[in-house]
Design goal:
Blueprint: H1 2-10, H2 64-81, E1 96-102, E2 106-116, E3 119-128, E4 135-141, H3 155-163, H4 170-174, H5 179-186, E5 190-194, H6 222-227, H7 231-247, E6 252-262, H8 264-275, E7 281-285, H9 310-315, E8 322-327, H10 339-348, E9 355-360, H11 369-384, H12 419-435, H13 439-450, E10 458-469, E11 472-481, E12 488-494, E13 502-507, E14 516-517, E15 520-521, H14 523-530, E16 534-538, H15 560-563, H16 569-586, E17 591-596, H17 601-611, E18 618-621, H18 647-652, E19 660-663, H19 673-681
Parallel strand pairs: 4-5, 4-6, 6-7, 8-9, 13-16, 13-17, 17-18, 18-19
Antiparallel strand pairs: 1-2, 2-3, 3-5, 10-11, 11-12, 12-16, 14-15
């Protein structure tokens, strides 16, 4: 083991100081302690959570192969985060299209369809009058304007919009929300402008507003987290079904479908295009940036942006055409932060001409006439093959009340469900799907829930330092991941019988300090050492030298604001165990076993399920964990998505029965460490 360590150091493994001043191995209080004088590891997780207002840069890949692998991982994570892995059954839309209004060069119709039984998507369909051929289609997501597609500005606001150059006349400014579908229809596009959940006609479920406002109406509780049921996921599903709807229209060319929207509608646009290859071209306006990622509940959900951000999420669209209008808001730096990196990616993929960005820094957050005209030009080029600039013509908007879908002849559907009823139906369908998941599919879901996998390379932050202690070799190091700023203190012990064959990863609520009982080796650990094993123990997040002074805080308004950017505490602990397993493997051990005790037993189960054959035997205390009994999103055992995929029994089933020893399913008889060791050694 020593020679292997020396080889690691000689190979140039990173020695980034995690903190100053090591403890001495002779520290009587705790011989495994790494730091003294109250010092702590320089682990980014101890500095607080990442939030939607942090910095989210994108580093372009160096090769197509590197991007293909990264794209697959991020796309899987997006699908899992939205509750769409595997994709739900596409039930009949039963679309109702009625109330055609004949206008100059186009028609407007009223539409509602069932994206799933009991839940309806509403909107307006704008069609060119020219018949006899198929037209490209554009989906238009309206964004967070108060009345959605019914938005009508007052006189004073409209005049202000004209004064700053956002609109060219007051009438257009008042009803600018109709400018896009009307103009595109006149240009030969079929346009479906559809409601966000809780807007205009789609009011069966309330649209909970922005950050800081309690997220209610049934999509912000622990069960929602455990089942990955979210307002954002519901909207994304509605967008996918909107593609199904326009593709079903006889006058639509299903191979030419664009999507656009501003603000929250921009989020809908890039998320849809990222996961649905049927989108041919996308224009997410005033949303994609390295800065603020989206402040509404409907733009955030657990797992969504852990380890990524809006620039990379939009990059999933590549090499398909994408345009990024920006304004004097959080997108104002797109031309220098984000766009150059996207350009580099598109160049790598041989499609540099397919991505473009433009900024109107004199204008506030908007989807005003300059950016709309930019969008028309883009869609004409990429969906119709026409190279021309189009000044937006004057148009005669309809009074918003005439656009409403429901009337006396077309009342709201009798089977329409509120949040509670809909979520119950979603859970039933999801549970049925989970029963048919193959192990590889479940393992991919787990990888996305953990936002992690077994590392191929370990970063040595500090050490290893080795010394003699009571006739043993005591090893201490600070380890992390190549692409993260984590710093996890480790300690390991080995005796003279260790020949490099077996390493046992010891996961204990007291961390690496549990290797010793006072100044002597703890009896179960001694049994492993006497049998010729090396034993390595980490201080996982929240334990030992990685203790958190303020605990693991979770946003009280909506847990997705926390878990959407950070691993849960449980997932962080699995991350640290996987780092330890990766380290043990890097030392050349022929066999790695895993023992998880007390409340960290479930952590060991998840780590073994994620690590697969890299870990041979698992001995774990199940600690009575039943995800279905968790009622607080801030519970330290929360794992978003766990219940959707079958809970702890499903993850335990990913560990071969002959290689696992799992006890204490009811939480009443804690695992005996001596018996766990005995089972591993047999």
């Amino acid at each position: 083991m020593l020679s292997r360590r020396q080889m690691l150091l000689a190979s140039g493994a990173a020695l980034v100081p995690a903190c100053t001043r090591w403890a001495t191995a002779a520290d009587a209080a705790d011989p495994t302690r790494v730091f003294t004088d109250g010092k702590k590891p320089d682990d980014f997780r101890l500095r607080g959570h990442k939030t939607l207002n942090d910095y989210f840069p994108f580093t372009p890949p160096k090769t197509k192969e590197e991007w293909a692998k990264r794209r697959e991982r991020v796309r899987e994570q997006v699908l899992v985060s939205q509750g769409l892995w595997p994709m739900p059954e596409k039930t009949p839309l039963n679309a109702v299209v009625h109330g055609k209004i004949d206008r100059d060069g186009y028609t407007v119709e009223k539409v509602f369809f069932a994206s799933m039984p009991g839940h309806y998507v509403c909107g307006n369909l704008y069609r060119p009058k020219a018949g006899g051929k198929k037209h490209p289609a554009v989906l238009f997501a309206h964004g967070h304007w108060a009345a959605g597609r019914f938005q009508e500005e007052n006189e004073a606001t409209a005049k202000a919009m004209v004064a700053r150059g956002e609109e060219s006349d007051v009438e257009r400014a008042k009803l600018f929300m109709q400018a896009i579908p009307i103009t595109l229809a006149k240009l030969g596009f079929v346009v479906f402008q559809y409601d966000m959940v809780g807007y205009a006609d789609s009011t069966a479920i309330k649209h909970v507003a922005r950050s800081g406002v309690p997220a209610g109406d049934g999509f912000a509780d622990a069960e929602g987290e455990l089942r990955l049921q979210s307002l954002m996921g519901l909207q994304t599903w509605n967008s996918i079904r909107a593609v199904d709807f326009v593709q079903s229209l006889p006058d639509v060319d299903g191979a030419k479908i664009g999507v656009t929207g501003a603000s929250g509608g921009g989020t809908q646009s890039f998320v849809l295009a990222a996961i649905d290859e049927r989108i041919t071209a996308a224009v997410p306006a005033v949303m994609v940036s390295t800065a603020m990622q989206g402040g509404c509940v409907c733009e955030n959900c657990s797992l969504f942006r852990v380890g990524t951000g809006n620039i990379e999420l939009a990059a999933l669209i590549a090499p398909r055409p994408m345009a990024l209008p920006s304004a004097n808001d959080w997108t104002k730096e797109i031309l220098t932060k984000g766009y150059p990196q996207l350009k580099q990616l598109y160049r790598l993929l041989g499609a540099e001409e397919n991505v473009t960005a433009r900024a109107w820094l004199r204008l506030p957050h908007n989807y005003g006439r300059p950016s709309r005209e930019y969008m028309y030009e883009f869609f004409l080029k990429h969906l119709k093959g026409q190279e021309e600039s189009i000044p937006e013509p004057a148009f005669a908007p309809l009074p918003p009340k005439q656009l409403s879908v429901f009337d006396a002849d077309h009342p709201r559907p009798k089977d329409e469900l509120g949040a509670k009823g809909l979520r119950q139906k979603m859970a039933e369908a999801s549970d049925q799907q989970a029963k048919g998941l193959k192990p590889d599919e479940l393992r991919k879901a787990l990888r996305a829930m953990l936002c992690d996998e077994l590392p191929a390379e370990i970063a040595i932050r500090r050490g290893p330092e080795e010394s003699k202690h009571d006739g043993l070799v005591l090893h201490r190091a600070v380890l992390g991941r190549k692409d993260e700023a984590d710093a996890v203190p480790h300690a390991g012990v080995m005796g003279p019988k260790f020949k490099g064959d077996s390493v046992v990863v010891w996961v204990h609520p007291n961390g690496k300090a549990s290797l010793f009982d006072g100044e002597k080796l703890a009896a179960p650990v001694k049994a492993l050492v006497d049998a010729g094993c090396a034993v390595v123990a980490p201080d996982v997040l929240g334990v030992g030298e990685l203790a958190m002074a303020k605990g693991f805080a979770v946003d009280k308004t909506y847990a997705g604001f926390t878990y959407g950017y950070n691993r849960s505490l449980l997932a962080n602990r699995v991350h640290d165990v996987l780092t330890t397993v990766g380290f043990a493997r890097s030392l050349g051990a022929k066999t790695v076993h895993l023992i998880g005790l007390g409340e960290l037993g479930p952590v060991a189960v998840l780590a073994k399920a994620a690590a697969g054959d890299a870990v041979k035997k698992l001995a774990a205390d199940l600690h009575g964990l039943e995800f279905a009994k968790i009622t607080d999103p801030a519970d330290p055992l929360m794992l978003p998505g766990a219940l959707k995929y079958g809970g702890l029994p499903a993850f335990l089933a990913l560990c071969p029965a002959d290689d696992r020893w799992a006890v204490n399913p009811n939480g009443r008889e804690p695992a005996d460490p001596a018996k766990a060791v005995e089972w591993v050694l047999k």
